[in-house]
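pls design
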């Protein structure tokens, strides 16, 4: 039983570490430009670790624009799912899009500023 728990713990640790290893280099993010399409972002940075749709107020007005995150781990994914109305995490790279799906802005993680 104890060996099973240890193996399971190691599998989770190894599997979740793969998410954080897929972060594009900072040089890729330095090539981002306002107005780029989502396809151009994927060509430059690869697939995001999570995608978030725009959120709306009770009156239907946009409150948080759509954004993608790069470098998520289990903690940032869980936080994003639980507190969706708070927007992007400051612990990962974030690319924010406008209503037409073009890059509006991006942010570095707090640990890289």
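designed seq:
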């Amino acid at each position: 039983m104890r060996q099973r728990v240890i193996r399971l713990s190691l599998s989770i640790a190894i599997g979740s570490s793969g998410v954080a290893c897929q972060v594009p280099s900072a040089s890729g993010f330095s090539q981002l430009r306002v107005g780029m399409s989502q396809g151009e972002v994927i060509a430059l940075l690869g697939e995001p670790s999570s995608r978030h749709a725009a959120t709306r107020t009770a009156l239907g007005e946009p409150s948080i624009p759509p954004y993608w995150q790069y470098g998520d781990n289990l903690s940032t994914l869980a936080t994003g799912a639980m507190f969706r109305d708070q927007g992007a995490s400051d612990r990962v790279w974030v690319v924010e899009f406008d209503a037409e799906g073009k890059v509006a802005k991006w942010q570095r993680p707090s640990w890289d500023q």
